[in-house]
Write a structure and sequence with these properties.
Blueprint: E1 4-7, E2 14-16, E3 55-56, E4 60-68, E5 72-79, E6 84-91, H1 99-112, E7 123-129, E8 132-138, E9 143-144, H2 145-150, H3 160-177, E10 181-182, E11 191-193, E12 199-201, E13 208-209, H4 230-234, H5 241-257, H6 268-271, H7 277-286, H8 298-316, H9 344-364, H10 371-374, H11 384-404, H12 410-428, H13 433-450, E14 455-458, E15 461-463, E16 472-474, E17 477-480, H14 486-493, H15 513-516, H16 525-533, H17 548-556, E18 611-617, H18 624-627, E19 639-643, E20 657-661, E21 669-670, E22 674-676, H19 681-688
Helix pairs in contact: 3-5, 3-8, 5-7, 7-8, 8-9, 9-11, 11-12, 11-13, 12-13
Length: about 700
C-alpha cells in the first residue's frame, strides 16, 4: 500500500502524496493544486486556466466557466471596459507553443471580426494574459443546437416548422459569411440558440478567408466527418462554399429524423410521415455528391426553405409559439409518457400532423381544390387512449414471451407481472399512469433478455440513496458488473483514431496481468465520462456514468433498510478488497475476485477496491432536485458524489456518501458505466421482432 504522506487538516484522513481533496469531508489537502489540475507531466491537460473573481488582462473579471474542451475553456466574464458580460475563449498554455494550433485559434478571431451579422457571434478582441491566449466575443445566453436536440424526449422529433426556421436563419448567416469565408465545420455544436429562438453561428476556427493564404493546418482533412462533404473528406483545403451547403443538408436531415445521413440514407418523409415530400428534394439536393448538383449558394437555399415554411404553416392551420419545443411533462422519477411513441399525446399530435401534411402534399401537387372537405378522412376517429394502450399491450406481451424463453428471468418476470397488473387497473380507470406502470413491466420483461455482456440489468424500483432519507424511484438500466479496468482504459486512451490522455502509470513499458485486470484510478470525472461516452455495448445507445441514485439502486436494491455490506450487517475481514492484510492485496485487487462483495443484482467490488465516480452533484443531505442535474451543469468547481469503499478503508457502508472535485485525479477513485434502457418505440419494436 502506498505510504500515507498527506493528512486532511479538517478530519485527519490520510492520503498518498499528490491527492488533491479529502473525499470524506471535501477539504482541499495541503499542497493541492489550485484550479489548474494536473501538470503536463501527468499526461493530463489542465482543466481550468482562470478562477472566479480573477481579473484577466486588467480588463475581464471572471464570473464562471461555461464550457470546456480538450484544447481550452470558455468563461463568462465581465468586460470592465465595455461594462457588459462577454465570453472569453482561451487556449490552454500547453498548446501555445504549437504554431499551427495558435494560428487556427487566432484565425477564428481574424475571420469573425469581419462578419457583422445578427446570426453570427460577434468577436471583440484578441490578446494574451501570461501564457494564455484568448478571444473575447459576444456572450450569448442559450444553448447549442446539440444541447437543444439532446433535450428532446426520446421518441419525439423537432417540429418541421421549427427545423425550417432554424435552417433559414443559418442559411442567412452563411449567405453573408460566404462573401468572406467558407466555414468548413458546420455542426449542431457550433450553432447557438437564444431563448428567443435566434440562431448564432460560431467557431470559424478552421475557416479560410478568401483573401488570405491558407493555413498549413488547412491542408489536412479538418472538420467533423458526419457533416463533411465528400470533397472535404478528401482534402479540406480545396473546398468552397458548397461544402457548407452539404453540411446544412446533413444538419437539416438530423433535425427532421434524429439521425445523421449515412450511406444510402432513406428520405426524411419515409422515416417521419409528417415531413412533406417536397422537403425530401431539398435535402437530397443539399447532399448531392457533386458540388455542381447542390444549391449553388446559401441564398438560393434560404429562399426555397422559406417557401416550404410558408406552405407548412399556411396549410396546417396550427399556430405554434415562435420557439417553444412541446415537451410532455413527466412524473418525478419517471419519464414514461414522453418515451412511449404510441402514447396518448403522440397519437393526438400525429392525428393533427397527418391533416397538415396531407394538405401540403395536395398543395404541392396542385390538387388543393376540395382538400378541406376530404381532410377529415386523414384524422383517426378511434379512441386515442385505447389505441395507445393496445399498442403498449402488444409490446408487453411480446416482451413477456421473450422473457419466458430465457434463463434466469423468473424474478424479473414476477416483478414485471406486478407492474402490468397495476397498469391494467389504471387503464381501466383511464389514468395516464397506466403507461408509466406498463413501461416498467416492459423493462422488467425485456431487460434481462437484452442485457449486454459484462453488464447486469437493474429493474425499475425504489432505493435509498442516504440512510434515513426517503426512497427515490429509478427507471430500469444496465450497469457494468465490474469496475473499468486498467487494460480497458488503456486501450481506450491508445485508440489511434481518438487518443485520450491516461494516467502516467499506464504508460509503463511492461504492465503485469494483475495490473491490467485491476480497476483504473487517477482518472478525473471527465476522463471517466469520455470513456463512457465512447462505449456502446448495445445498438440503442451510448453509456454514461451512473447517477448516485442508480449506483445506490444497483448496490442496495429496494427501499427497505439497506444492508451496510453486500453480505450482511457485519463487516467480514477478507470479504472485500479493503485495508489490512486479510484480503491478501496491498492495494486494489483484480476486479471480481471477491464473491461476497456482490450486490443483489450482481455488481462486484462495491464495498472495496476503489471508490467510484457518479454523475450527480454532491449535496448533503441528498436532494435529487439539486443532485441530479444535467451534465452541462457540471463545470467550474463542481463537487461530484463518489460511492463505495476503497482498498484503504477499514470498512465502508454501501450508504456512505463522499465527494470529489470534478478535476480530481485520485489514486482511490475509479468508475463503472451505465447504459439506459431503449427509450424510443422504433428501436424497441426492432428488438422485439
Amino acid at each position: 500500500m502506498a505510504e500515507a504522506q498527506t493528512k486532511c487538516p479538517k478530519c485527519g484522513s490520510a492520503y498518498p502524496s499528490g491527492h488533491q481533496m479529502c473525499v470524506r469531508c471535501g477539504t482541499r489537502l495541503p499542497g493541492a493544486a489550485g484550479s489548474t489540475g494536473a501538470g503536463e507531466g501527468s499526461g493530463k491537460a489542465a482543466v481550468s486556466t482562470f478562477h472566479r473573481g480573477q481579473v484577466v488582462a486588467n480588463r475581464y473579471t471572471v464570473i464562471d466557466m461555461i464550457g470546456r474542451g480538450g484544447m481550452g475553456c470558455i468563461y463568462k466574464v465581465r468586460d470592465n471596459t465595455l461594462d457588459e458580460d462577454v465570453a472569453l475563449k482561451t487556449l490552454l498554455p500547453k498548446f501555445t507553443n504549437d504554431r499551427h494550433v495558435v494560428d487556427r485559434f487566432f484565425n477564428e478571431a481574424r475571420i469573425a471580426r469581419q462578419l457583422s451579422h445578427p446570426n453570427i457571434i460577434r468577436v471583440h478582441d484578441i490578446g494574451m494574459a501570461g501564457t494564455v491566449v484568448y478571444i473575447s466575443m459576444e456572450y450569448v445566453q442559450g444553448r447549442s443546437l446539440r444541447e437543444w436536440l439532446d433535450s428532446i424526449p426520446p421518441g419525439q422529433r423537432m417540429p418541421v416548422s421549427y427545423a425550417l426556421r432554424l435552417m433559414i436563419q443559418l442559411s442567412a448567416a452563411l449567405e453573408f459569411a460566404h462573401k468572406f469565408t467558407v466555414h468548413r465545420d458546420l455542426k449542431p455544436e457550433n450553432v447557438m440558440i437564444t431563448p428567443e429562438g435566434k440562431v448564432k453561428l460560431m467557431d470559424f476556427g478552421i475557416s479560410k478567408l478568401k483573401s488570405s493564404v491558407q493555413l498549413t493546418s488547412a491542408q489536412m482533412v479538418m472538420g467533423t466527418p458526419k457533416y463533411m462533404s465528400p470533397e472535404q473528406l478528401k482534402d479540406s483545403s480545396s473546398v468552397d462554399h458548397r461544402s457548407d451547403i452539404y453540411a446544412l443538408g446533413a444538419m437539416l436531415y438530423e433535425l427532421l429524423t434524429g439521425n445523421v445521413p449515412t450511406g444510402l440514407a432513406r428520405q426524411p418523409s419515409e422515416i417521419r410521415r409528417e415531413t412533406p415530400p417536397a422537403l425530401d428534394a431539398v435535402v437530397s439536393k443539399c447532399l448531392a455528391l457533386e458540388p455542381d448538383d447542390r444549391y449553388q449558394n446559401a441564398g438560393e437555399l434560404r429562399v426555397e426553405l422559406q417557401r416550404l415554411l410558408d406552405s407548412v404553416e399556411s396549410s396546417s392551420g396550427i399556430e405554434i409559439p415562435e420557439f417553444e419545443l412541446p415537451v410532455v411533462p413527466a412524473a418525478r422519477g419517471a419519464s414514461i409518457l414522453r418515451r412511449i411513441g404510441g402514447g396518448v399525446l403522440a397519437a393526438l399530435v400525429l392525428a393533427v400532423a397527418a391533416l397538415g401534411v396531407w394538405r401540403l402534399e395536395r398543395l404541392e401537387s396542385g390538387e388543393a381544390a376540395g382538400a378541406a372537405e376530404e381532410a377529415s378522412s386523414a384524422v383517426p376517429r378511434e379512441d386515442p387512449f385505447a389505441l395507445a394502450f393496445d399498442e403498449l399491450t402488444a409490446r408487453v406481451h411480446r416482451a413477456r414471451e421473450l422473457a419466458a424463453g430465457a434463463e434466469g428471468t423468473a424474478g424479473f418476470v414476477a416483478e414485471g407481472g406486478a407492474f402490468w397488473e397495476q397498469a391494467q387497473g389504471l387503464a381501466a380507470r383511464r389514468e395516464a399512469d397506466a403507461f408509466r406502470a406498463g413501461w416498467f413491466a416492459l423493462e422488467c420483461y425485456l431487460g434481462p433478455v437484452l442485457c449486454p455482456q459484462g453488464m447486469v440489468f437493474v429493474p425499475p424500483g425504489e432505493t435509498v440513496v442516504e440512510r434515513g432519507a426517503g426512497p427515490v424511484f429509478v427507471d430500469g438500466f444496465f450497469i457494468d458488473k465490474h469496475e473499468v479496468t486498467n487494460g480497458q482504459f488503456r486501450a481506450f486512451a491508445l485508440d489511434t483514431a481518438n487518443p485520450w490522455p491516461m494516467p502516467d502509470y499506464l504508460g509503463a513499458a511492461r504492465l503485469t496481468e494483475e495490473i491490467l485486470l485491476s480497476p483504473v484510478v487517477g482518472v478525473t470525472f471527465y476522463d471517466a465520462l469520455a470513456y463512457a461516452a465512447r462505449t456502446q455495448p448495445a445498438p440503442w445507445g451510448m453509456c454514461s456514468l451512473p447517477t448516485e441514485a442508480q449506483w445506490a439502486r444497483a448496490a442496495c436494491g429496494g427501499p427497505g433498510t439497506p444492508r451496510p455490506y453486500p453480505w450482511g450487517a457485519e463487516w467480514s475481514p477478507g470479504a472485500a478488497s479493503a485495508a489490512g492484510e486479510a484480503d491478501g492485496y496491498p492495494g486494489a485487487a483484480p476486479v471480481g475476485i471477491f464473491e461476497l462483495d456482490t450486490s443483489p443484482f450482481g455488481c462486484r467490488d462495491l464495498a472495496g477496491n476503489v471508490m467510484e465516480w457518479t454523475r450527480s452533484l454532491f449535496v448533503s443531505p441528498y436532494d435529487p432536485s439539486v443532485a441530479e442535474q444535467a451534465l452541462e451543469a457540471i463545470w467550474f468547481g463542481s463537487a461530484l458524489a463518489v460511492r463505495g469503499g476503497s482498498y484503504t478503508d477499514e470498512r465502508t457502508s454501501l450508504t456512505e456518501r463522499r465527494s470529489a472535485w470534478f478535476d480530481e485525479s485520485s489514486p482511490l477513485i475509479g468508475f463503472r458505466c451505465v447504459l439506459p434502457f431503449p427509450a424510443d418505440s422504433e428501436t424497441l419494436d426492432e428488438l422485439l421482432r
